[in-house]
Design a protein that fits this description.
single chain, about 180 residues, about 55% helix, disordered N terminus
Length: about 180
Amino acid sequence: MIPLTTRSVPDAAVRFPREIAAAVTLPAACAALVAADPAALRPAAAIAVLTASAALATRLAIVEFLAAPGSPDPRAVRSFDPFSDPMPAGLQGVGPEPDRDRLRRAGERATAAWQFWRTDDPAPDTTVGAAGALSIGAWCAWALGSSARAETRARYALETRADDPLAGLVLRSVLARSAPTWERR
């Protein structure tokens, strides 16, 4: 009997389907998070955000995208490669200050994706993506200097999935009273 995990059998062509799905939906998720459209997050966009948030490599890419100055093209976002990419400076709150309205909108939409998961998502095993989306929302709140909102979102993300690394990092940063030190433009 083969144990049920996120990995398929070793000889299969697709070994990490969750990570592949996250990488494929990454550009759509980034576009949904920063769209100028004031409408609420639509179900298809919420699903893209939840799917892209299911892998830590794509979450780090989303954080890097959101922290980038200007308005980079969401279609150009690629997954973070821990073997060749430097740690995103924005993850630590350093570098040029990101667009505050863009971060606020992304944080609200990431949180809306988590709320969609709680109420309407029919997919059974999406807790990792839901926790990931809310941890992105927590990071956005932290990056804006809202430690109370960041702590609340991080705690909810950890309630959703106790081992979520980004939520844990945000919560530890808040509890340590670490704040971003963005360079003002």
